[in-house]
């Protein structure tokens, strides 16, 4: 297993180009099960999650490949297979996104319940209720969700909210299913994350009829068939945000190109509040600090559905606040248990205590490098960020988590001046 070795003490300076969004490309790849022609997804990131999704789709009879420039090309010839086994689905939650397309296209599906709940319960009841509302019979047997809709799906009114806000992949699953249902589907309480809107645009390019894109009310008129399309994947706002926090934590200057600044407004607002300069153009954002050793002002965040502060940037923000000049509160409203990074940051000298869904972070001038264990994707990014400002060497183990969602993060941080290398032989 690989590990990252991070030597702290360097102020980052430079530019990085945002990759395509993991959370947009994965459901788009599942959408290839809906169409007859080839689907070309440009600017897809080179990630292990993309490779896993290619395998899941291959097992379902959808041929695919990723080209050197990132473009993913997929085509489902004839009827898809309908069984997505545990061995593949367990590696990645987004593989649950094949459920809606398979049920719509083949009128049945057998998809393993996604495993690996690394930060608490991650149910899919909303996905299942949505598909039931469209006329599917849904059962759970031996760890598999089975859907059947012998006469095909029928449009309906559905509400997809949960106690923690709308469900992102739940909206995507039901929306994809509705594109081939008979008649009109109205989704109330749809997730408004930019990745959902980007998936809508990809489906429209394939021939789907969707109104209300980007809003909590989606109206989908089912069509007989969808075809192929070419779509350029949206920039990854979470990856972009991670590099901005990397710039800030080192008191440096980092510009992220080819991104959508408006989609990171919650982060840039907090960065300014924490004492950093933020400039933005139409498709770039730059953060600048006052030099290595700068300590941020303590700045609270509460995670919320878009356009609120994203849960996928919570761990990175906590790393930044570990060195703040005072006490800040980080409150997790989407996944109240998403705090696996907390004990690892404490191992690096951070002073954090948890009070239910809130972490109380008492900033300290000094963090010290340590061997730490990555537990999930964003937690691992946070540990790398903390390593950038720690005395000595930080070893981040289990970097396969980070490879799920960051394309060559070690190379890209090095290009900004960081001392980070990948080594074999981690725990
Ligand atoms: C592949 C992908 O796109 N992953 C993202 C997606 O995950 P994912 O789509 O799994 O997350 P959801 O939006 O579904 O979850 C939001 C909240 O709703 C709850 N819930 C969800 C579904 C359900 O059926 N019942 C239920 O109660 C969840 O436990 C959570 O508290 O959105 C999350 C929230 O922005 C992000 O952190 C993930 O990076
Ligand atoms: C939680 C994430 O991904 P997933 O839903 O695929 O686990 C993430 O991208 O931060």
Can you walk me through this structure?
The chain is an alpha/beta fold. It folds into two domains: 2-19 and 235-424, Enolpyruvate transferase domain (UDP-n-acetylglucosamine1-carboxyvinyl-transferase, Chain); 22-232, UDP-n-acetylglucosamine1-carboxyvinyl-transferase, Chain, CATH 3.65.10. Helices cover 30% and strands 27% of the residues. The chain is built from 14 helices and 28 strands. The strands form eight sheets. Strands 25-27-1-28 form a four-stranded mixed sheet, covered by helices on one side. A hairpin with a 2-residue loop joins strand 22 (351-355) and strand 23. Helix 5 (125-133) packs parallel to helix 6. The protein is elongated. The relative contact order is 0.16. Residues 22-23, 93-94, 312, 377-378, 405 line the site of phosphoenolpyruvate (PEP). The modification 2-(S-cysteinyl)pyruvic acid O-phosphothioketal is found at residue 117. Residues 6-413 form the Enolpyruvate transferase domain. The active site is at 117 (proton donor). Keywords: Cell cycle, Cell division, Cell shape, Cell wall biogenesis/degradation, Cytoplasm, Peptidoglycan synthesis, Pyruvate, Transferase. Cell wall formation. Adds enolpyruvyl to UDP-N-acetylglucosamine.
């Amino acid at each position: 297993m690989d590990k990252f070795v991070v030597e702290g003490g360097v102020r980052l300076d430079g530019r990085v180009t945002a990759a395509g969004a993991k959370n947009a490309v994965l459901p788009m790849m599942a959408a290839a099960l809906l169409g007859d022609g080839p689907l070309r997804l440009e600017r897809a990131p080179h990630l292990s999650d993309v490779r896993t999704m290619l395998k899941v789709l291959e097992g379902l009879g959808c041929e695919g490949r990723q080209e050197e420039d990132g473009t993913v090309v997929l085509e489902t010839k004839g009827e898809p297979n309908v069984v997505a086994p545990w061995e593949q689905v367990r590696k990645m939650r987004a593989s649950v996104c094949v459920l809606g397309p398979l049920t719509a296209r083949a009128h049945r599906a057998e998809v393993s319940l996604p495993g690996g709940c690394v930060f608490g319960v991650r149910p899919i009841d909303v996905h299942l209720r949505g598909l039931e509302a469209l006329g599917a019979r849904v059962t759970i047997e031996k760890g598999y969700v089975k859907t059947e809709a012998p006469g095909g799906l029928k449009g309906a009114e559905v509400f997809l909210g949960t106690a923690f806000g709308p469900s992102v992949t739940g909206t995507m699953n039901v929306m994809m299913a509705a594109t081939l249902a008979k008649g009109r589907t109205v989704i109330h309480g749809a997730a408004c994350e930019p990745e959902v809107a980007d998936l809508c645009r990809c489906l429209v390019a394939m021939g789907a009829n969707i109104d209300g894109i980007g809003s909590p009310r989606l109206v989908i008129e089912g069509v007989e068939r969808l075809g192929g399309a070419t779509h350029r994947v949206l920039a990854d706002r979470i990856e972009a945000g991670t590099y901005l926090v990397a710039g800030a934590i080192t008191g440096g200057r980092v510009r992220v190109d080819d991104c959508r600044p408006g989609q990171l407004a919650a982060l840039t607002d907090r960065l300014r509040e924490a004492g950093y300069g933020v400039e933005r153009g139409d498709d770039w954002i730059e953060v600048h600090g006052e030099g290595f050793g700068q300590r941020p002002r303590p700045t609270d965040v509460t995670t919320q559905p878009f356009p609120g502060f994203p849960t996928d940037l919570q761990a990175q923000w906590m790393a930044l606040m570990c060195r703040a000049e005072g006490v800040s509160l980080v409150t997790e409203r989407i996944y109240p248990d998403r705090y696996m990074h907390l004990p690892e940051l404490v191992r690096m000298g951070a002073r954090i205590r948890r009070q239910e869904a809130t972490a109380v972070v008492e900033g300290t001038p000094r963090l010290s490098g340590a061997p730490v264990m990555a537990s999930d994707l964003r937690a691992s990014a946070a540990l790398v960020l903390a390593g950038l400002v720690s005395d000595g060497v930080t070893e981040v183990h289990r970097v396969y988590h980070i490879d799920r969602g960051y394309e060559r993060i070690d190379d890209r941080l090095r290009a900004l001046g960081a001392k980070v290398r990948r080594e074999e032989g981690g725990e």
